[in-house]
Records
---
Amino acid sequence: MESNSSNTSGSNSTPSDSGSTTGNDTAIAIVLIIVGGIVIVIIAFIIYKCVKKCLRRRKRVELHSGTASSIDEGTTPNNLETSGAAVGFSQVELESMDRFLAEILQERPIKFTSFHLKSFTENFSEKIGSGGFGVVYKGQLPNGIPIAVKVLNSNMDKRAEEQFMAEVGTIGRTYHLHLVRLYGFCFEPTVKALVYEYMENGSLEKHLFSSEKKIGFDKLNEIAIGTAKGIRYLHEECQHRIVHYDIKPGNVLLTVSFSPKVADFGLAKLCDRENTHFTITGARGTPGYAAPELWMPLPVTHKCDVYSFGMLLFEIIGRRRNFDLELQSKEWYPRWVWQKFEIGEIDVVLTIADIEEKYREKAERICKVALWCVQYRPDERPTMSSVVRMLEGEQEIKDPADPFQYMVAHSLESIATSSTGTTADYSSGAARASSSL
Ligand SMILES: Nc1ncnc2c1ncn2[C@@H]1O[C@H](COP(=O)(O)OP(=O)(O)OP(=O)(O)O)[C@@H](O)[C@H]1O
Ligand SMILES: [Mg+2]
């Protein structure tokens, strides 16, 4: 019975064991297939990623070698213009462009390649103007923001390079309603450029000395106040004091609504707020606007900008250059204004400047502030915050002393010399002025 039963149980167990073995095998096979499948998918994904990365790297290398070759063909913008068709935005890495635009929002200057600049300016096709340091072109960022690209002269010497660094280092991180924004720069062995926000109405110089008189006196008064606020920010409000050195109508740019922004910090100097005096090497500024201490062996402070701003105020009042050989009267305008003020005939100045009766009070204010700003002794010149308050009628303006007394001993013409010069030709102008003093 037992043996039967054991037999029976033995005969029953065999098929059942073989059934479970088959089931286990199937389960193992299924798990292996699934795991194998997952491994294959992971390997395929890794290979895909690697290939994509390699392709992207190769594309980047091509992009840079493309840039280099276009530069090799020539170093000037003209050469860039003729070195092939414009490169479309599609070829510019969109990913890095997104990063660039994000950095613009974070107010950090961006490093562009000359390839990008070529793309933004459609091969440097629209020239806006040129100055002592290079040529300015109109362009557009991929998101439609208009820009002005200043391509610096290729024969950049050490000083110019220093100025380039000053602009990128100090101004790239300086943001104010009345300062032109620096979006970025390009610093390649043969192409150095600065990328600014585009100012639709160009420079104040263009409007101030044109016979068209597109801007009325009230707007000019606003422009004077806005410019003063921009300089006040540089001197008194930003982290480090920044001395501009080259305040003049050509460096005040106007937005579409004629709001002013101070431009061109190429000569800017960053100084310690506590360290008020400093020495400078080489002539700076533009003749006619540069304070006496800039071309005489005297200590220089931020007050040299106040002097230049005063000269700008005279030109705003007269709507003429301070020293204009083409005019019948060869007199230096600031000194003539002083002479009229001294004998109580400021009205004559305003009548000749064609200023309407309703603006006379504001205009007289500008005249007096200008006379204060151009005082010979820097410590007698007001601070820019005081200038703003005086221009806005919030601070009483005392009668200024004669700012030009020091000139009695010198030839007036030599001091006002070359007032139409640009920054770059100042060295010779300064040399002339100081040799004749
Ligand atoms: N951000 C800008 N937006 C619009 N136009 C500009 C901009 N920057 C410069 N320009 C124009 O380009 C021209 C040349 O400017 P640039 O600064 O090179 O020379 P400048 O100011 O005349 O002389 P300097 O070299 O002494 O500063 C100017 O007439 C100015 O109107
Ligand atoms: Mg300029």
---
Amino acid sequence: MYEVLESRFGSEWLQALTDEMRLFGNKYRQQLDAFTKEGMFPRDIYVEMGQRGWVGPTTATAQGGLGGGVAEYCAICEQVARHSLISPQISVQGQQWLNRWGTPQQQARYLPGIAQGTLIFAEAISEPDAASSLKALTCRAEQSGSEFVINGRKTHVNLGVEADVLLTYAIVPEAGLTAFLVPANAVGMTRRQTDPIGLRLLPTSEITFDNVRVAEDSVLGRVGGGFETFVTTFNVSRLGNASEIIGFSERALRNAIDYAKARPVGSSVVTDFQGNQWIVAEAYSKIYAASLARDRAANLADAGEDVALPTTLAKRLAIEAGEYTVNECYSLIGSHGLYTDTDYGQLLHDMKVYRVAGGSLEILKNYIAKRVLSDDGLLR
Ligand SMILES: Cc1cc2nc3c(=O)[nH]c(=O)nc-3n(C[C@H](O)[C@H](O)[C@H](O)COP(=O)(O)OP(=O)(O)OC[C@H]3O[C@@H](n4cnc5c(N)ncnc54)[C@H](O)[C@@H]3O)c2cc1C
């Protein structure tokens, strides 16, 4: 739902997008479900999504994108999750990194392909012993003449095996955290696919960097500027996470209501019971609140405001709505939701991934508490 989301293309565009993405989801339902089961990336469907502008919402049309802003990004992510399509989240983050910090050469080389879905981007930040805390990363990049030599291990990397370019965060001695655009054909990189329970259309991987040499011009932003490149991207991409969670919640509630209204129990149907009606009321209220917070954060982002707190609040409220809805809808669907050929088990797993990845619930709450405790102006 987009109660107060202000699309630069108008409300008719939002409605047309919703209709088009529903039809697209219906067309590819069986194939997407099969890819989900196998834990594989549906490349051809992804490229078609790219041609429709759904992979490059915030990139300029001249660079192959849709030419929209954060509002359009949110609307697309919500519909992606509503119809279990392929999340463009990793790709959009890549485009935001490049749009904000890329040199003209880096943008020309990578942006159009990533925006159109023909060039696959991955982000290699998390490590086996460090993910929530950037300060604990150990992957190193040592300067050697006009090159950097990267050594270390990365984990949980969505599309790490499929990627053509991997934005890799490593510590440069003396300078600090730095982001590198590492081409997938770099010598010394080993990639192994792993098998996540959720978001299975974007398979994960473990990557080892063994003396991987990259040219100086592969640094994104400045040497030692890794923290700023990270924060500026994640502050906005949290809204993509929030929007997908809102889409999961709407899908779970819509499907559960449709089932429960038609499910007889004795002389009643499941939705006749007040306890179940209250679950519907609670779930809808939480989704509504999360959508409003998301819409407001997106509008502020498009207006160029500081959105660190609004985007964090939006994802935190979306997690609450999503976890409540996908858990409690079992009161409406009963055993029907406990089989692998229904959608509910996958929704439980997808929700758990977004509770952790892209900013875990605990880290979001830490940030909200820090802001509220340090700024009396937030509570007048
Ligand atoms: C399916 C999937 C896809 C992912 N995709 C990518 C990707 O493409 N690229 C990438 O680099 N990473 C990716 N990640 C990694 C993800 O960002 C990390 O899992 C996340 O940052 C949390 O790290 P961790 O799981 O190692 O938790 P840890 O850092 O080990 O923390 C363990 C738990 O403690 C909590 N915790 C940590 N610090 C605090 C604190 N200060 N206060 C309170 N609680 C705290 C955490 O929230 C977590 O619940 C992905 C993860 C998954 C599961």
